[in-house]
Amino acid sequence: MALDAVVEDIRATSKGEVDKINAEIEQEVARIRDEARERAAEIKSRKEAEADSAVEALERREISSAHLENKRGELTLHKELLEQTNLKLIESIAKLSDKDNEALIKKLLEPYDLTEMRVFSNKKDESLVSSLAPNYGGNITTVGGVVVESNDGSMKYDHTYETLANELFSGSMKEISKVLFG
């Protein structure tokens, strides 16, 4: 019996030790689990912040891209309107009365010694220009105006209505844009 008592005592002590070890293990497991949850929460929070930041950056890029695309469309429209305005200017010049056209051509030829130059014009103005310039050079494709060229071809002055209108239009682009687009 004494042996049974010793075995029982060892069992009781062992059970107490096992219960104590199991309690310590459960505490350690709980601590590790809590730390893991904290780390997971930190990682989740950090990843959510990174995702939020990435979404915000993407939204900013998309908005910026949309604004840029809108501005491009607006500029394209402005360019088209300016080109149409320039074409209307040239069309208006092409419809000058014969009297105004003759006066303008004479004014364009005024600065030149026409004996030293060849003058070109469109077919419509050929008789006028050839009566003014002894060295009529022939016809060119233009709505009006003249091209004056030295006899040796070293100097050439383009005074066609298209060129004059384009130069006037280019030089006045800022003012024209302001009038058209505010």
Can you give a write-up of this model?
The chain is of the alpha+beta class. It has two domains: 1-95; 97-181, hypothetical protein PF0899 fold (2-Layer Sandwich), CATH 3.30.2320.30. It has helices spanning 2-94, 98-109, 126-132, 161-171, 173-181; strands at 117-121, 136-139, 145-150, 156-160. It has a four-stranded mixed beta sheet with strand order 2-1-3-4. Strand 3 and strand 4 form a beta hairpin. Helix 1 crosses helix 4. The model has no long low-confidence stretch (mean pLDDT 86).
Q: What number is the mean pLDDT?
A: 86
What's the gyration radius in Å? 47 Å
Strand content: 5-15%
Strand order of the largest sheet: 2-1-3-4
Question: Structural class per helix/strand content?
Answer: alpha+beta
State the order of secondary-structure elements, H for helix, E for strand. HHEHEEEHH
Care to give the gist of this entry?
With 182 residues, the protein is α+β, with helices and mostly antiparallel strands. It has helices spanning 2-94, 98-109, 126-132, 161-171, 173-181, and strands spanning 117-121, 136-139, 145-150, 156-160.
